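Anyone opening a protein record will find just a pair of labelled lines. A complete record is shown below as an example.
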Amino acid sequence: MILGLFRRRTRDAEHKTYCEIVAQARQPVFYSEFLVPDTIDGRFDLIVLHAVLYFRRMQGEGKKVAEFTQEVFDLFFQDMDGSLREMGVSDTRVPKKVRKMGEAFYGRADAYMSAIDTENVEELALALGRNIFPENEEPIAQERLARYVIGAAASLASQATDDLIKGDISWPDAERFLDPDNKNS
């Protein structure tokens, strides 16, 4: 029994969950058809977007789920820290950059949440445009992405919490949201 106190708790489910979020954000369709810039910033923004969707779904699910999602959130920022170091950012600048990423995460979450909650495609498209397409607006791509996000939120809402904390996440097929005539994909 006492040895159990000193065992390192594995974070397999948290890691799997984080990997599922990243895998969905890295789907080529987002960069080819939704016109998300295939840059460090574009990739970061899509990971943030999918993380926001996941964390939004998990809100209010109790203390154990809150602890789990905090672990996933921590993995996200550990990954960002490691990525910055791999890109050659100096050790003294990494904490500042990670802090800026944290501020960006919370700013984007605030900008997206109310539009997702009210299923307001236009408001969400504008917020996505400011963050994902800051250089060149892409109104059609922004609307498609907004419809995808609202559809993904609905999909996550229909999934069991127990599955979601195991990393068994069913994201919708983003290609379904490319057809402008199919607004309720």
Summary: Confidence is low (pLDDT under 50) at residues 1-8. Residues 59 and 66 are 7 Å apart (CA to CA). DSSP finds nine helices and no strands in the chain. Residues 63-86 form the longest helix (24 residues).
